Automatic annotation (TrEMBL), chain A:
Alphabetic keyword roster: ATP-binding, Nucleotide-binding, Transferase, Ubl conjugation pathway
Protein species of origin: Maudiozyma humilis (Sour dough yeast)
CDD domains named in the record: UBCc_UBE2N (cd23813)
Enzyme class at the top of the EC tree: transferase
Membership in a protein family: Belongs to the ubiquitin-conjugating enzyme family.
Name of the protein in its database record: E2 ubiquitin-conjugating enzyme
Keyword Chaperone in record: no
From TrEMBL, chain B:
Protein name as annotated: Sip5 protein
Family annotation (CDD domains): SIP5-like
Family, similarity comment: Belongs to the SIP5 family.
InterPro entries: Sip5/DA2 (IPR039301)
Coiled-coil region(s): none
Organism per entry: Maudiozyma humilis
Low complexity bias locations: 25-39
């Protein structure tokens, strides 16, 4: 295996020395490009009180290519599908090498605080969200209780 | 390496390196730097003068042969250039020669330096990713419109003493370590690298397609090995030169003076993209004044040709890419990585008191103009950032400038898709001809139907054939084919014209 770029080493170190509130990211022992991530549901959102597990992988071309991020915990959200895949522009076409693991995870956390049902990944959830926002949020809260309890 | 003799092979005497003409006399040196105000138009004049005034031009010429792709004339766009006329169709032999030439073109050579940096990247990114036009980049560096490629420090500690810093800098290699056995090339035979022909490594009985694939793989594995050998040769030359100077045997004008090394590395900063510590001044984005090192800048490029990212309409079925019009393929200029402003450009302000290397004074004679107190760093830093009055937008360098072939690539991809869909149509129509009973289930889109050959084959093979022919006679089908042929040839002609116009 090729040696790990300095950038990844430094990012990992800085995540430890200067952690982001509500977010943890730890590299795997046998693959330092693979991170186990937890994100706390933002206060005031239906995901409050939830702790969500994610996985993050830095591809060979990182930082010229976006990290791959996926929810492992089941979540009811219009931009996150059943497999945990996330519809977020900066993970796809709007990726920039100036972004970091830290900024990516903050964006994911922000996506929990403000879902965007008009650009959905999970169509059924989005439809529910548009037609009956209160009901959808209630479902999201229930799922958080059921699957993401701290 | 028969075709890449090392310097030691050439003359059996490493000291020769030092004697190579380049920084001949102080007289011609000052004329080169004095001429810079007028050399903006022909930025390589200094280089050429230098070469022309060489004392042993025969030696230099032989030197250029084995160190081909050096800086003879970065602006050369002649037939010999690896980057000339991207529109031309080339044989695979030519393409391979171009790739080898490019690999030689991005070798770091210690005696090709500008202001303490080099003309080729250190190697923080892989070879596959270094697909920029090396002639253009070298010439921009020599013109001082783009920061040179500096050797980065992995870490920097401001508490290091001058001696500690110098010791670290002295030990820096020319190029990052290579991955000598990448997984990609595992089990691929490379044969004798000295022999240009390696067909003997390929099974004679394989199909043409298999042959092509194996050939390409072996070529890439060989190029990887050759590149390592070439760069290591340069590394050895650099090391020998350093050892010779240290032993006091000889002076070498190409090696940086201690003061140069200190001034470079005492005033560096961390590139926000690679996180490596790089001597300043760095390039700055014109839009938001953020720093970026040259090694990262040459990585920023347009996305590969793609279909426009429309807002997805959830009520419409998603269209398969193979059904879209190839002419819709598009790419946009790269955005600024920091503020996402479109059409990313950078601006570089060269250090005023450090004009060394090509078109400057010999690196070995550099004397620091700043007092050695060390507390002037802050002043220096603020100077690095170009002030708005200094910014001359005509000097800005865009990502497209260093990859001028983006348009040719886009057209090539469009043609490839068009050909594929034409093939599909042809197969589709001939199926209808051969078998009149052939179902027209896939016929809605014809004659401009776009589909991959695979799709159409799948349709033609599908068992149940609803016999709902729309009363098409053989004649009609023939007309249809002729029309399609005419349409395609018109299109090809158009594309040919537009590409020749652009030349």
């Amino acid at each position: 295996m090729a040696s790990l770029p300095k950038r990844i080493i430094k990012e990992t170190e800085r995540l430890v020395t200067d952690p982001v509130p509500g977010i943890t990211a730890e590299p795997h022992d046998d693959n330092l490009r693979y991170f186990q991530v937890t994100i706390e549901g933002p206060a005031g959102s239906p995901y409050e009180e939830g702790l969500f597990q994610l996985e993050l992988y830095l591809p060979d071309d990182y930082p010229m290519e976006a990290p791959k991020v996926r929810f492992l915990t089941k979540i009811y959200h219009p931009n996150i599908d059943r497999l945990g895949r996330i519809c977020l522009d900066i993970l796809k076409t709007n990726w920039s090498p100036a972004l970091q693991i830290r900024t990516v995870l903050l964006s994911v956390q922000a996506l929990l605080a403000s879902p965007n049902p008009n650009d959905p990944l999970a169509n059924d959830v989005a439809e529910d969200w548009i037609k009956n926002e209160q009901g959808a949020k209630q479902t999201a809260r229930e799922w958080t209780q059921r699957y993401a309890k701290k | 390496m028969g075709n890449v003799p090392t310097k030691l092979d050439q003359d059996g005497n490493p000291v020769e390196t030092v004697n190579r003409p380049g920084y001949p006399t102080s007289g011609s040196m000052s004329s080169a730097s004095g001429a810079t105000s007028t050399t903006d138009q022909s930025p390589n004049r200094g280089t050429r003068t230098r070469r022309a005034s060489s004392l042993v031009s025969t030696f230099l010429n032989s030197g250029n042969r084995y160190r081909s792709g050096s800086i003879q004339d970065p602006n050369a766009q002649g037939a010999a250039s690896a980057y000339s006329s991207p529109h031309k169709r080339r044989s695979s032999k030519e393409k391979e020669a171009i790739k080898e030439q490019h690999a030689r073109n991005i070798l770091v050579r210690y005696d090709e330096s500008v202001d303490g940096g080099f003309l080729a990247p250190y190697g923080s990114y892989g070879f596959d990713k270094l697909d920029y036009n090396a002639d253009v980049v070298k010439s921009l560096i020599i013109q001082r419109r783009l920061a040179p490629f500096y050797t980065p420090l992995q870490d920097f500690d401001s508490s290091w003493s001058r001696e500690e810093l110098l010791k670290i800098v002295e030990g820096l290699p020319l190029h990052a370590a290579f991955n000598e056995h990448p997984e990609e090339f595992e089990d691929i035979p490379t044969g004798d690298l000295n022999k240009p022909n390696f067909d003997y490594l390929i099974d004679r009985n394989c199909t043409k397609k298999e042959y092509r694939r194996t050939h390409a793989k072996i070529f890439r594995a060989r190029l990887h090995k050759k590149r390592i050998i070439w760069q290591e040769t340069e590394n050895e030359v650099f090391l020998e030169a350093k050892l010779d100077v240290r032993s006091g045997k000889v002076k070498n004008n190409y090696l940086p003076s201690e003061e140069l090394k200190y001034d470079l590395y005492a005033n560096g900063s961390e590139c926000p993209i690679c996180f490596l510590y790089i001597p300043g001044p760095l390039n700055y984005s014109t839009c938001c004044q953020q720093p970026i090192c040259t090694e990262c800048f040459v990585q920023i490029k347009r996305a590969d040709p793609h279909f426009p990212h429309d807002e997805v309409d959830p009520t419409q079925p998603v269209k398969d890419d193979s059904e879209k019009d190839p002419n819709l393929l598009t790419t946009e200029p790269a955005n600024c990585p920091y503020c996402a402003t479109t059409e990313f450009t950078i601006i570089y302000t060269p250090p005023k008191d450090r004009k060394v290397g090509i078109q400057g004074i010999p690196p070995a004679t550099y004397k620091s103009s700043v007092p050695q107190a060390g507390d002037d760093n802050q002043d220096k830093k603020s100077e690095d950032k170009p002030e708005s009055k200094d910014i001359n937008m005509s000097n800005a360098v865009s990502s497209d400038d260093i990859r001028p072939d983006w348009e040719a690539k886009l057209n090539k991809e469009r043609q490839r898709l068009a050909r594929r869909s034409a093939n599909a149509t042809a197969i589709h129509v001939s199926n209808q001809l051969v078998n009149p009973e052939y179902a027209v289930s896939g016929n809605q889109g014809s004659p401009t139907r776009r589909g991959s050959a695979q799709n159409s084959r799948a349709t033609s093979n599908s068992g149940s054939r609803r016999s709902q022919r729309q009363g098409k006679s053989i004649e009609e089908l023939e007309n249809q084919m002729v029309q399609e042929a005419i349409r395609l040839s018109l299109k090809e002609e158009e594309q040919r014209k537009s590409s020749t116009d652009k030349k």
